[in-house]
Structure formats: C-alpha cells, structure tokens
Amino acid sequence: MVIIIINSVNVDPFSRKEWYNIKAPSMFTNRLVGQTIVNRTAGTKIASEGLKQRVFEISLGDLNNHDDDFRKFRLVCEDVNGRDCLTNFHGMSFTRDKLCSLVKKWQTLIEAHVDVKTNDGYQLRLFCIGFTKRHQDQHKKTSYAQHSQVRAIRSKMVEIMTREVSTSDLREVVTKLIPDSIGKDIQKACNSIYPLHDVYVRKVKVLKKPKFESTFNFSSLLFHTRVSSSLCLTNLKSSENSFSFINSSFFF
C-alpha cells in the first residue's frame, strides 16, 4: 500500500488583490473617503473594469467631517484614473434610527414622492416626509390634520420638489440636499395650511442617467476624451453616409 502525501501550500488571497482610492465628488469637503479592493489584472480580466459601476454608501458625516449626521450618500464608480475611483452621485437615504425617531404619537405623518428630470438629463425620484405640529397657544394634545389639508400639503411638496430639481443640474441638486434646503422651503410654504416640523427629503433615487455626459466630478482629461470620442464617432458616421451616397449615385 502506497501513501502519497501532498504538501498543500496556503496562498494568501490578498496577494492577488490591489487597493484603489475612492474619490468623492467636488462638492463634498472630504474628497478621499476610503479604499476598495479588487482582483489584479490577469489575462482578459482588467482590474479597472471590475470597479466600474461599483456602489459605495458613505455617511455625510464622513464626507463633510461632521460628527453627527443621519444622511447616507450612495456614490457609484464611473471611471478609474490611475489608482483613483472617480465617483458620481447615485442616491441618498436616511439612517434607520433617524427615521424611527421622527415617528411619534398625536401627529399626522405626510409623505409625497415625485419623479423629476434635472436640466442635465438625470431622472431622479424624490421622497419627502413631514409631520404636523400643534398651533401656537394650543392646549389640545393632538395635532391631526384633515384629509383636505393633507392633500394640499402633499401637492405643495410635489410642486416645490419639482421646481427645485427641474431648474438645477445634478451638482446643484446635491448641494441642496446636503443642508436640506428643499425641506426648509416646504416647511415655510405649508405653514399657511397647517404647521409642520421635521420636514425632510428623506430619500433620492437615480432612475436614469445620460449616456454621454461629462459629470461634475470628472477630470478634464476624461471630459476631453469623451468629447473627442464622440466627435470621432460623428465624423465616422458622416463619412459612412457620404460613402453610401457616392455608391448609390454610382450604381444609379
């Protein structure tokens, strides 16, 4: 009886991986927000291709160096420049504990959502939340709004969110989401209908993106590369059209 002993070699899985820096868009204070790992380039598998469209969820406290913040921003890797992952805005949401702390008794919860397109071609879906509060010098414990008042407040939410987003590009929308100026405008506008408090844009989704668009956080090199490639495609299409026209005139 022959016994074959095979010496197994333990290979460190991290030896086949490399680290890349995550760079946030330019409107945030802290641009370098972390690192991500990916397999090294081997054969036909390129490391940078495995990083594209990777989504990172980062707290606004880490992006703007604040200790207490309850907003989480989602950033998607659009391109890789050297060892840097260039990211773009991909969504925003609240933390679970913040949402749970807002809901209380003796008040009416009002929610609204709307799909809006920015002026640079991004289709966004915004979710707004707000709560009624007692009138000034009110002794009654409850502050319930009537159905007609809820409908009026909801329509006002949709109107303000549509106006603020449709007249801005994606960079300006993100700048408005950081201090939540849209929620403050809604709270002021709805005071004549029913007093509100804790009005926030609690969630933002990116539904559609433009195909060939220079986003706000890309370097100028990437912008010129995309423009030159689109010009080359345009020239190629025009030359093909002229060639087909010559061939058709020749045969006829």
Q: Can you offer a commentary on this structure?
A:
This protein is α+β, with helices and mostly antiparallel strands and 252 residues long. It folds into 2 domains: 16-97, no CATH class; 103-210, Tetrahydropterin Synthase, Chain A (2-Layer Sandwich). The protein is built from 7 helices and 8 strands; from the N terminus they run ββαβαββαββαααβα. Strands 1, 2, 3, 4, 5, 6, 7 and 8 form an 8-stranded mixed sheet that branches. Helix 4 (147-166) crosses helix 6 (181-189).
How does the SSE layout of this entry go?
Layout: E1 17-23, E2 32-39, H1 47-51, E3 55-59, H2 60-64, E4 71-81, E5 84-94, H3 96-102, E6 109-117, E7 123-132, H4 147-166, H5 170-177, H6 181-189, E8 196-208, H7 220-251
Parallel strand pairs: 1-5
Antiparallel strand pairs: 1-2, 3-4, 4-5, 5-8, 6-7, 7-8
Helix pairs in contact: 4-6
Family: Belongs to the eukaryotic ribosomal protein eS1 family.
Subcellular location: Cytoplasm
Organism: Romanomermis culicivorax (Nematode worm)
Largest sheet: 8 strands, mixed
Q: Helicity range of the residues? A: 25-40%
| Domain unit count | 2
Tally of DSSP helical segments: 7
The overall average pLDDT, rounded, is 85
Gyration radius from CA atoms, angstroms:
26 Å
Query: Alpha-carbon distance between the termini?
Result: 86 Å
Order of helices and strands: EEHEHEEHEEHHHEH
CATH class of the largest domain: Alpha Beta
- The CATH topology name of the largest domain reads Tetrahydropterin Synthase, Chain A
Fourth CATH level, the homologous superfamily of the largest domain: Band 7 domain
**Residue runs with pLDDT of under 50 for 5 or more positions:** 212-234, 236-252
The percentage of residues in β strands lies in 25-35%
